[in-house]
Amino acid sequence: MRIEKIQLDQIRNTELTVYLQEESVELAAIKKRPGMLIFPGGGYEFCSDREAEPIALQFLAEGYQTFVLRYSVGKFKNFEQAFLEAEQALALMHKQADSWHLDTEKIGVIGFSAGGHLAAALANLGRIRPSAAILGYAALLPTMAEQMGLQAPNLLAAISPKTPPTFLFATDEDSLVPIENTIICQKELAANAVPFEAHIFQKGGHGLSLGKPVTANGTNTNVATFR
Question: Which pTM was predicted?
Answer without folding.
Answer: 0.91
